[in-house]
Amino acid sequence: MLSRMAATRENVQAKESSERESHLAGVQKLKEGFESLREKQAGSGFGTESDGDVAAIDWDFWAAVVADYATIARTKPSELTRAVQNGLPPPLRGTIWQLMGASKSPLLEEIYASLLAEASPHEKGIRRDLSRTSFAKNASEEALFNVIKAYSLWDPEVGYIQGMAFITVPLLLCMREEEAFGLLVALMRSYALRDLYLPEMPGLHIKLYQFDRILEDTLPSVYVHLARQGVLSSMYASQWFLTFFAYKFPLPMVLRIFDIVVAEGLEAILRFGIALMRRNADAIMQLDFDALLHFLKDRLFDVYLDGEQTVQHKAGLLSRTQSSTEPVYRVNEFVADAYSVKILPATLKKYETEYSELHRVERERIEEVENLRTANGQLTLQIRRLEASMATLNREHIEVANEMVQGKVELAKLRDENEDMKAELEQLRQEVAAQPNELESKYKAEMDQIMQRNLEIMNMNQTLEDQIASLEKQLVETKVTLATTNDAHESLKGKWNDIKKVFDVAL
Which end of the chain is more exposed for a tag (fewer CB within 10 A), N or C? Predict the structure, then answer.
């Protein structure tokens, strides 16, 4: 309890100044509410020994707790532990829960009001689950919907998980919905309950491992029997941690479990789980897989059933005029059994470290397997490619072989043609050898004709050269005559100009 109180104080100190101020204001409101309830009780006599099944409330003690919870926890830890173990007074349960969890915050309540005006993507799922969850009928369905919807908006990473309804119902039975939202946020954040609700549920896996290790240490025969039957703790204990046993357990037991969880932390669930297994050890040892799993899920708490009594009030939450025929469970005995289970924080830390190491090794193994699978896939692909290449080479080999056969056929054909051409060439050589003289005479006659024609052409060229020389001489003479004529023309032209000038002067 002191450890839980220290953790809660550290969480409060780590908040921003505005949140701390809001927390202090919330504590003051809780104190005012307690004093108001105390004054009302003093005038009505509620909470006395004559109040039926509700035990008398030690108002002075609880007033001291409300006034300074930290001091009472430090100075009177045994007395406070016994008070929590005996069950918080139902009228004060909501106040004490909020005080221990440091959840009362006017600022958070304002945020809650604003969240109600927003739409959540989980609304349909919440409505659907609430309509088929019998446990939800203990509280206002609309208030339950509002709190869960608001949290799904407050913490989008977690969003909504069906088990939230079982956590929220006991809160709503003991306080207003905005206060229930505040305590739900505190349980999720400060108590690390949200680690159990995250997508991969890391917190749940750690709690289940711790439970297995404690069960192995405290009840080795039960642990071995479960292992031999193939019953894993995740098959039956997951709902214990996700719902604080509210999934199947009766409400009076759940409220007492909440008292201790809020006071001491989620580790208390481990003690309740081990207590149940210890009390039912003999029955567990007699069952095989199917019957064993059914027993662990649905009948484990029947060992605390007291069939001779009836419930007049559900943990003080029903009015005096209401009654029920539901069986009574020996809740005090259940709680006492849980407190008889000793679990040291160092042991839990040790098991958490073990789990982290095992998880790391398993994660590395999985990564190695994935790498091997990837490499195997790549090798398989490479083999397929090589097989395809081999098939292609085989086809090419067949084509080359066919071409070689065709080449051999073609070569034989060419050899035959070559032989024919050799025979034809030999025949031509014989014909050429038989006609050399005839060709020589014919060649000589043709040469004579060519030489005669060449002589004629040379004579014609000489005649043309003579004619060209004569024409060139005539051209030179003509140019001289033309130059003389041009000089005479220029002379006559000059004389004419002189005569024209004289004639112009005479006029």
Answer: C
